[in-house]
Amino acid sequence: MIIGCTGNYRKEEFYAILQKVYSILKDENVEFLISSDLEKNTEFEIPNEYIIMEFLQLVEKCDVLFAIGGDGTILSTVRRLEQNMKPIMGIHIGGLGFLSECTEKNLKESINSILNNEYLISQRMLLEVQVSPPNDAIQTLWALNDVVVDHGPSARLLKTEVQVSNHYLNTFEGDGVIFSTPTGSTAYSLSAGGPIIYPSMDSITVTPICPHSLSARPIVLRSTETITMSFPEPYDGISLTVDGQIKILIDDQTQIKIRKAKHSAQIISLPGNGYFKTLRTKMGWSGNVR
Questions:
Q1: C-beta of residue 91 within 8 angstroms of C-beta of residue 17
Q2: Mean pLDDT over residues 108-131, rounded?
Q3: Beta strand pairing status for 158-164 and 139-143?
Q4: What are the Cα distances from residue 133, in Å, to 154, 250, 290?
Q5: FRET pair for 197, CA 20 to 30 Å: which of 19, 61, 169, 265?
């Protein structure tokens, strides 16, 4: 087995965890490849024994990819993989994450589970968003969590007309609209009043952000639907954000199409760390307290 590794090299804790992973895999005689992103930190002296490789080349060679950081690190890693998906194990810096089941505390145990093939792969659907500005090339992006269209720097209400597979859904007036995957249902959509959806399901949730009408509510759609969005009124500074990390400014003439991507993310699930356990921990559920 060949293990590849990437992560948030901007965090100080990253380097201690990386060294621990290297030591564990060295003791097991497992080949360990580290993304050349590490070289961007010019203050860090890379040990001679580390095998450094360009990210795309590393992806071609490895069987499993470790992502050291937070859930945001996994989101960015999934997008970098594009359609060349590999199983990803998140190693969370700090506490437990929704996507990262491994922490520094259970690092050796988690790595042993990988080496002994004692893990499951959770297939997570992605959203494909096509942004079509007038008289410009179509831009295609992928999201593991969500695509958010909002009013950007303006304080004015944004009107968004949403069609579902050529059927008119609604014209939302408010701060914007969130389109989320089941994985992203516990992110921004949840804060805006959206439902929690089991992550291995296939669905698209449309959640209005602070709608002007109290009757505007989230709706869960089949993943086979194609969603289009347009803007019926002139508006300056509309923002489209993917997974809270990639932000582009668009205008009211831009056409947006959202649908299920043809490929999916492969997130590793470890023994004893089921989704409901993670959900209870992150949500602070403590049972029937009276």
A1: yes
A2: 96
A3: unpaired
A4: 20, 7, 54
A5: 169
pLDDT tens, 196-251? 999 989 999 999 999 999 899 999 999 999 999 999 999 989 999 999 999 999 99
| CA 252 to mean position of chain CA atoms | 27
pTM (two decimals): 0.92
CA distance 230 to 107: 47
* Spatial CA neighbour of 131 closest among 18, 31, 37, 246: 246
Q: Are 205 and 185 in contact (CB under 8 A)?
A: yes
Measured in degrees and rounded to the nearest 5, phi and psi for residue 114 equal: -65, -50
Active site residue 202: no
Compute the half-sphere exposure of residue 147: CA atoms within 13 Å on the CB side of its CA.
Answer: 25
Coil, strand or helix at 200: coil
Indicate the average pLDDT of the chain. 93
Beta strands 102-103; 120-132: pairing state: unpaired
Asked if residue 288 has pLDDT above 70, the reply is no
pLDDT at position 276 is: 87
CA distance linking residue 59 with residue 54, whole number of Å: 9
